Amino acid sequence: MTSTFTDAAVSVDEIWLENRRGASTLGIAETRPRLSWLVSGDSRHTSFTVEGRASDGTVSVYDAEGAATSIAWPFSPLRSRERVTVRVRVSTADGHSAWSASQSVEAGLLERADWMEPFVSPSPSAAQGGLRPGYLLRNEWDLAAVGIGVDDIRHARVYSTAHGVYELELNGEPVSPDVLAPGWTSYRHRLRYQTTDITDRLRPGRNALGVWLADGWYRGRIGFDGGLWDYYGEDVSALVQLELTLTDGRLLRVPLADSWRYRAAPITAAGLYEGESYDARLLPRGWSAPGFDATSWAQPELLALDAFPAAIEAPVGPPIRVTDVLEPVAVERVASGRIRLDFGQNIAGKLRIRVRGQAGQTVRLHHAEVIENGELGVRPLRTAVSIDSYTLAGDRLEEWTPRFTLHGFRYAELEGWPGDIDTVDVAALVVHSDMQRTGWFTSSHPGLNRLHENIVWSMRDNFVDLPTDCPQRDERMGWTGDIQVFAPTALYLYGAQGVLTSWLRDVAHEQKDHGHVPNFVPWVECGFPNFPTAAWGDAAVIVPWALYQHDHDPSILASQYESMKAWVDLVDDLTGQTGLWNAGFQLGDWLDPAAPPNNPGDSHTDKYLVATAYHALSARLLARSANILGRSEDAVHYGRIAERAVAAFQNEFLSPNGRLVSDTVTSIAVALVFELFATPEQAERAGARLIELVAASDYRITTGFVGTPLVCDALTIAGGIDHAYHLLLQEELPSWLYQVGKGATTVWERWDSMLPDGSINPGGMTSFNHYALGAVADFLHRVVAGLNLPEPGSDVVVIKPHPGGGLTQAGTRHLTTHGEVGVEWTRRGTDFTIDVDVPLGLRARVTLPGSGDAFVEVGHGTHRLVGEFRSAEDDPRKPAKRRW
Question: What is the C-alpha to C-alpha distance for residues 201 and 173, in angstroms, rounded to an integer?
Fold first, then answer.
């Protein structure tokens, strides 16, 4: 099929599974994982070959035409524990590439029957109302006792999970950099496990496993308004299965159940909100190493696997890890006597201390996002006190970081530090899901660059296993409305597919339980109203659609299709099949800046206008999804539901001349971006009114969670790109850059989370780390820089920058499945230059400002186009639409 000589001008650089960049290929759940690869070089490939080598040496080869990505697994479906080594080469007109590096793909435990060990519990139940301690579990076994040596082992695996949070050690050393495993899922439905390769860590003879274990999300206090204890279960327990595959092909499971022993850990108290207390004097040295005397340790209770019906699944997303280490930018002693550290960046994470002092001395670590009146601003934390404490063992330099808690903070104070300020050795460890960075933005405006960086940090801090609202107070929930508006930005900035795919599975499970999509997932019954809510519940449709739009992979639509249908069907029923959603609980344009601090839902925008508009959008997207999946009858059905909703919107909220009943920026933005007007004339008049309203507010923000992600797009649709820039670059309250001007390093929940006088907003719901209002980054990438990623079925990148706002430069880069695509434009006087980078497999259509809809098409490589700059208001082009 291919030439016999190698084309050195092209190479296969990286193989991905399931579009999950950087994800583990060990212990996967998919029996037929899809494959993608990155190709670099100067030649476009026209075909490819995939080779799979099984553990027994059997080789399978698959040849196909085209330059495919996300190809279906071309070999036999994987069975539990099966391992296949894959490599790829591509062919061009001049030959073929060298083989890629090999990528091992190994299935995990795919069947419930594969699990043979019980849960092991040191605490089947505990008193509620106070923090519980952590536990140590250990197990020791002898390879010689089963008649094998380390040379007889081809590979060794530990499959493990917990009701709680845990860390594993083997022979006295940690086996993984993962933290807070197994993460947070809807535990009644599914519990993820981790697969660890310990082949090279085993010793001849005796070996020992150790487990650190604490409550975490499963049994600790979670939720706001006081929270709930033991929401998912009363036990804290570990499930650990050790399997050895021998060189002769036999599988040996090391029986562990009867050999476990436990005792209380040096972690004397641990809570995700409250913090962790640790007494280093209580650590039994060598406890997880062979030969330790554990005769005084207690025997844990064994809990049958069948007592817990949740599916035990391999993760589809990356683990939570420490991804960065920040040193303090300032250290000072404050009036209280504490030592204050400023890390210069608001993060989700924890502290690492190195300290020397006398045995029994205790250092307390206090955390906060901001300073108010010279003190740590802890009121917004509510009951998440965020205090860790460490009691020294003494007589040596000691290093410690808490294991089983997480804080949102920029500032920390050390209380009881045993030494002068110059002995402080403390770093901040940044913690989140270990996603690969995929998107960047830069401009000539420092404030805009800082805003974008704030958005990146807020995403990092709130993607701790699932997309949460905030990382610091007693909440940290997977609010559906926040990720609904932010999903396109998230997928551009990071390889977030695994995190979102995992979370959507929980959405579907919780939706079945409640009959609708709860306002946050996983759902916790902590007092918030649990009713179908527009813009929040619509995440069930919009987030899968955003994944499809980004990856061009219909499998996400197929896997979430029943959930998508169930949401649209429910709302259709709530409207009585009229399309008008005008009754029931709604959040509306949440956190409208004019809403009072104690009533964030008191928006000027009609909440039922928002509800009906979202019903129209979700039904429309579902109809398109049905078409993509070949469900033609459904496509017609949901197309009619969408038409009813649009007609209901027009009849109820729209006057014949284009004036909306709810005459607000959010109302018009929703109608323009969702294409809800009956005629172009109505849309034009509404657009003029939008510009009038935005100008009348002196270009200060008047929108909340619903309107803010849409307003800049709506202004550009209305022909007011310069007005969008005025709004974007406004520095007075309320605005994006007001936050930057106040020193923000993340995006705030409220436009005025910090008031102009430096005091914290008095509302009980005030966070300094929310990504929802940062959804404007999508506009920065797509309109300001001008990079529009290919539509499904296309290999064309559309580049249409819309300069304005006095910017002299803007650029963006994004790592696609073909490689990195980038654009950077500059203007000097009337000279305008665009530099474009196009990877193999893509083409770019570049439109210069002032050239109407004319474009220049370029292929792979680096290109520079030069033209004459015209003001944005003179530019007749419309920007590319949001991709729905």
Answer: 9
